[in-house]
């Protein structure tokens, strides 16, 4: 009976240990596949990094099929969640270097060749990430900040001479709205930089991600707000409490501003790119973000 052809799916890079063996054995990956280390612990040097991998059906993961899958939001979400579940579970117990979703090789030999080629870089990066985790800091400005962006306050209204026509009244109202919005964004930007500076004082590295819009900006309390800061920080384990406290204090007494701190996360924002594409690789990742560090990011 012929065995179905497979591809090697790579989730992350980590240094094999007995504890990592136990974690890997307890997890299932994308397509509910069993995980394994490549190479197995003991087959390389004592501190040599390995890939965390699984085997996935070639028929479902070859490049032309993936193109269609990435148009299917349900498939994309479930696969991203499975990928993230593996990486987050690993990072809870070990230092890991996450790779992008859908990092695939034609077979284990090609995956091993890529691992050997990049082993020095992987080793250096894992050393950098040791005893640290990623935390996200997001700053939102609420629509009703500064007394409402679309309505002038009573003092401004009283000081404004009565217009001589409805047209002038409309133009004056629009001008006041424009100035109110400008003031609100200037205040929000200043608040965001103040919070970012406080966070950076307790982190070794920081990454500024693009601000988010749409449903992602909904806060945990169900309030809408405009995202004006979306940063990720690499924070040493012994600085986490000071980091959280500094961000919270920097965000106090800022009317209309909400600050969210998330984490710890696997260090998505500080990981190296997936191995570069070659003639033997099927696909080397989509760069899809699956936490909001960010979730990450």
* Derived structural class: alpha+beta
Major β-sheet profile: 5 strands, antiparallel
Strand order of the largest sheet: 2-3-1-4-9
Mean pLDDT: 80
How is this structure best summarized?
By secondary structure, this protein is α+β, with helices and mostly antiparallel strands. The protein is built from eight helices and nine strands.
Name a few traits of the molecule.
8 helices, Alpha-Beta Plaits, four-stranded antiparallel β-sheet, 297 residues, alpha+beta
Notes on the structure:
- The two termini are 45 Å apart.
- The protein is globular, with a radius of gyration of 24 Å.
- The model is unreliable at 146-158, 216-222 and 273-297 (pLDDT under 50).
- The chain is an alpha+beta fold.
- It has a five-stranded antiparallel β-sheet, sandwiched between helices. It has a four-stranded antiparallel β-sheet with strand order 6-7-5-8, covered by helices on one side.
- The longest helix is centred in the middle third of the chain and has 35 residues, at 166-200.
- Helix content is 38%, strand content 23%.
- The chain contains eight helices and nine strands.
- The protein has two domains: 6-130 and 270-284, no CATH class; 134-265, Alpha-Beta Plaits (2-Layer Sandwich), CATH 3.30.70.
């Amino acid at each position: 009976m012929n065995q179905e052809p497979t591809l090697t799916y790579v989730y992350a890079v980590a240094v094999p240990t007995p504890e990592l063996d136990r974690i890997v054995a307890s997890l299932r990956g994308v397509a509910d596949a069993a995980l394994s280390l490549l190479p197995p612990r003991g087959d390389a040097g004592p501190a040599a990094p390995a890939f965390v991998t699984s085997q996935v059906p070639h028929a479902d993961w070859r490049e032309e099929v993936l193109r269609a899958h990435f148009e299917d939001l349900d498939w994309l979400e479930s696969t991203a969640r499975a990928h993230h579940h593996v990486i987050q579970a690993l990072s809870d117990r070990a230092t890991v270097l996450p790779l992008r979703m859908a990092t695939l090789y034609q077979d284990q030999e090609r995956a091993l060749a890529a691992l050997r080629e990049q082993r020095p870089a992987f080793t250096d990066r894992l050393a950098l990430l040791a005893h640290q985790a990623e935390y996200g800091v997001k700053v939102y400005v609420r629509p009703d900040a500064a007394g409402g962006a679309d309505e002038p306050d009573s003092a401004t209204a009283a000081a404004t001479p009565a217009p001589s026509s409805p047209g002038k009244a409309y133009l004056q109202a629009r001008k006041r709205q424009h100035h109110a919005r400008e003031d609100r964004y200037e205040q929000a930007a200043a608040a965001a930089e103040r919070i970012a500076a406080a966070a950076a004082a307790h982190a070794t590295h920081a990454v500024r991600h693009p601000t988010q819009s749409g449903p992602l900006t909904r806060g945990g309390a169900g309030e809408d707000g405009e995202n004006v800061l979306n940063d990720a920080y690499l924070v040493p384990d012994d600085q986490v409490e000071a980091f959280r406290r500094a961000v919270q204090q920097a965000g106090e007494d800022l009317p209309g501003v909400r600050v969210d701190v998330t984490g710890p996360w696997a260090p998505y924002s500080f990981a190296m790119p997936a191995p570069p594409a070659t003639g033997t690789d099927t696909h080397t990742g989509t760069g899809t973000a699956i936490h909001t560090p960010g979730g990450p990011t």
